[in-house]
Amino acid sequence: METIKVTSFDRASELKAFDETKTGVKGLVDAGVSKIPRIFHHPPAKLSNPKPLPSDLLHLKTIPTIDLRGRVFEDVISRKNAVEGIKEAAAKWGFFQVINHGVSLDLLERMKEGVRNFHEQSPEVRKDFYTRDFSRRFMYLSNFDLFSSPAANWRDTFACTMAPNPPEPHDLPEACRDVMIEYAKQAMKLEPDQTLGTSQHADNSFLTVLLPDQIEGLQVRREGYWFDVPHVSGALIINIGDLLQLITNDKFISLEHRVLANRSSRARVSVACFFTTGMRPNPTMYGPIRELVSEANPPKYRETTIREYATHFNAKGLDGTSALLHFKI
Q: Which residues does 86 contact at the CB level (< 8 Å), separation at least 6?
């Protein structure tokens, strides 16, 4: 009879030990880890797309790319075409890329380099910023849902609320301070507030503007299949968040997305700007827009505050299910 030896796995202790290093995934890499720790292991079923794409979906090769013409349109028709393209992409994909968006390519590159500079600093410097206190003006951590998600993601993150009350320069790391302030201003010009009425997840925001690097791996899930988002030089990726799907009563969709493991020798860098008030005080109740509901198309979601939604999203973690289900009527 064959005897199988089962190695014990105290997940809670390993998570705690990893978090207490305050150096994240980068710390493991710097230490020369030879294999990925068990806390990062995802079930194989979540990592693959075993079903071949059916013939009726073969035309859905990639998400649309919209030309914003430097945000200055020559005439009403060209602007209308761009708007219609965005509306169609938001309704069918929830994702689209924009080119000629008015943000200089030099600034895009400097922003990505600023992110690299922060993560390449010595562990002693990074540790000063490591925290799970979400009230901090600037926070650096690995996996916001480290202790609630089924498996950790192989990534480190730093985040900062840049508007409406921007942080003082001394609150930001010197390695990326100036470029963060400059990039945030440009990102807000790209999607002014008047236009709003890594594992699979949808964003708990109205809108996300993503600056990717050249290393591919981002995928969008549509009709049960994963579609690669190709690299388009100089483009920004825009995706609809859960809150915009809620207020449009599913007219615009917030699709799940994920980032595959990085097989490159260089770390992948991405910069996401989330347009939401998150956990900050905001008493406004958000529900489906009245003009978009009718007797034939009744509200699909109950009203909620952004803070209530963010609280549920953060507690649930990136477990592969949509936080919108909790607010369905």
A: 66, 96
Q: Which residues share a beta bridge with 218?
A: 259
Residue 24: is its pLDDT beyond 50? Answer: yes
Does the pLDDT of residue 19 top 70, yes or no? yes
Check whether the bond before 283 is cis (ω within 30° of 0).
no
What's the whole-number average pLDDT of the chain? 87
| Token pair belonging to 51 | 């079903």
Strand partners, 209: 238, 273
Backbone angles phi, psi at 240, to 5 degrees: -75, 135
67's tokens: 């030309």
Residue-by-residue DSSP string for 20-70: HTSSHHHHHHHTT-SS--GGGPPPHHHH---SPPPGGGTT--S--EEE-GG
- Which overall architecture, per CATH, does domain 51-122+177-327 show? Sandwich (2.60)
Name the H helices within 128-282.
177-190, 242-247
Q: What is the pLDDT of residues 148-185, one digit of tens each?
A: 888 899 999 999 999 888 899 999 999 999 999 999 99
Query: Domain map of the chain by residue range?
Result: 51-122+177-327
Residue 238, H or E segment: strand 236-240
| pLDDT, tens digit, 9 for 90 and up, residues 218-240 | 888 888 888 889 899 999 999 99
Secondary structure element (H or E) that encloses residue 91, with its range: helix 76-92
